[in-house]
Amino acid sequence: MLLYKILYKFSLYGGILLLVVGIIQKSTAILARGLTFSKYGNVSYGILDGNGTLLLSAGCLILSFWSRKVFLNLEKERQQKINSERLEFKQKRRKK
Q1: Stated pTM of the model
Q2: For the chain: N or C, fewer Cβ within 10 A?
Q3: pLDDT tens digits for 25-41?
């Protein structure tokens, strides 16, 4: 459960940061150039423009919303279990 909370916050902040960078890149027509490495060790030259950055930010924000939804569902299930155990404990106590 804690993993989803951390994933939610990390991807939300990363997505917002990438969104701002993508908007700046799109408005000023800046390209980010650099070397990329494939899984086989090949080195190639890559370019990331504003559209690519905005697409990455959208993916991060979707991941953030999904992990938030999972976290809230787990938290709700946990709270329901706690409430049912409390109710059960009270009922046993009344019988005595």
Answers
A1: 0.73
A2: C
A3: 888 887 777 777 777 77
Give the total residue count for the chain. Answer: 96
Is residue 11 within 8 Å of residue 67, measured between CB atoms?
A: yes
Contact 31, 48 (CB under 8 A): yes
**Read out DSSP for 18-76?**
HHHHHHHHHHHT--EEEEEE-TTS-EEEEEE-HHHHHHHHHHHHHHHHHHHHHHHHHHH
Q: How far is residue 62 from each of residues 55, 58, 81, measured CA to CA in Å?
A: 11, 6, 29
Per-residue tokens: 37: 């490495």
